[in-house]
Amino acid sequence: MSSVRVVISLKNPFPFGRNSRLPPLKPTPLRNKIPPVLSPLKPTVRTLRASAAAAEMVKAIRVHELGGPEVLKWEDVEIGEPREGEIRVKNKAIGVNFIDVYFRKGVYEAELPFTPGMEAVGVVTAVGPGLTDRKVGDIVAYAGNPMGSYAEEQILPASVAVPVPPAVDYKIAASVLLKGMTANVLLRQCFKVEAGHTILVHGAAGGVGSLLCQWAKALGATVIGTVSSEKKVAQAAEDGCHHVIIYTKEDFVAKVNEITDGKGVNVVYDSVGRDTFQGSLACLMSRGYMVSFGQSSGRPDPVPLSDLAQKSLFLTRPSLMHYTATREELLEAAGEIFANIASGVLRVRINHTYPLSDAACAHADLEARKTSGSIVLMPDS
After folding, report:
1. Tell me: the pLDDT tens digits for 239-277?
2. Where exactly are the transmembrane stretches of this chain (predicted)?
3. Fewer CB atoms near the end CB (10 Å): N or C, the chain?
4. How far is CA 187 from CA 14, 132, 196, 300, 318, in A?
């Protein structure tokens, strides 16, 4: 454990201010600085350091260097009391998303060291001064900024927390909020899917893909889904895919052309990236929409604008945070997700549960494509 030596001058007993907080460590430069689906704020769990005031300790996953799942370390971290506009939350369930892998590997930028995780449900244990719309005992969920949900407890801005309806199980809420709001943006805002449309969803058996397929079918669209293995075909079909393609064994472009009689699809939702990107463009009909929202196989190669002109295509790379920037937008998006769960439009599969301390195993399985549906981490205590 490193320590920080603080020299206190008698003339200035509070060199960093009366509520002293040590200056942050110098950030480690990272390789890529592309806009992430969710851009991080500073982590909400503070590392154990010498400080002028005693602090309570909780357990959390920490990343001190970029790399594989083995860089996820189970450590003691310092947590204080919420300030004005903040709440302290004891996490009950934590969602795992592929964006957590991107940050761990350095695909997206974060200041080292950091606590990963961008989705959780927990109980409010303390509220900061001046808050009147939150109280101790509330069950709340959050998805997105700030990063830091892989922890037993965390401090959150009250503005990012949404109430969880009593009818929605907390594990379901933790596994679906980020993915569900992402699906909302993709289906209802980037391109508004309607009855009669034909869509292509890559990763149809994954967390977001499963929700996209269910929701699109309920809207009346014809859904073509791709999966990576035979064992995921049945789930994709159950989740609403009218046609399922194993893209690791079949030429998905040829199959889409066959299914659509050469017309192509109205929109492609692509979270795979490099391995599928060019093929996805080829699957689109004239004036079709290419919605890229992930890159699990790597960053796609640059696309000349002239390539889009051949069929007057539209290309977008959305960020959820731009669609939930206000409190009203956040509450509306979260409310629609919870309502669709309650009505049965969306069914959430939590196929994999791991102890929080075993987050490295969850990441390894996710990257190896051993998982389907949603993954949840459960705090050890």
Report:
1. 999 999 999 899 999 999 999 999 999 999 999 989 999
2. none
3. N
4. 53, 35, 14, 22, 12
The whole model's pTM is what?
0.78
How far apart, in Å, are the Cα atoms of 66 and each of 21, 35, 102, 357?
26, 18, 10, 18
Give residue 41's identity as a one-letter amino acid code. Answer: L
Cβ neighbour number for residue 344 with a 10 Å cutoff: 9
> What is the DSSP pairing of strand 86-96 with strand 153-157?
antiparallel
The dihedral formed by the CA atoms of 139, 164, 120 and 51, expressed in degrees to the nearest 10? -30
Q: Which two tokens stand for residue 281?
A: 């463009």
Q: What does the pLDDT look like over 187-221, one tens digit per residue?
A: 999 999 999 999 999 999 988 999 999 999 999 99
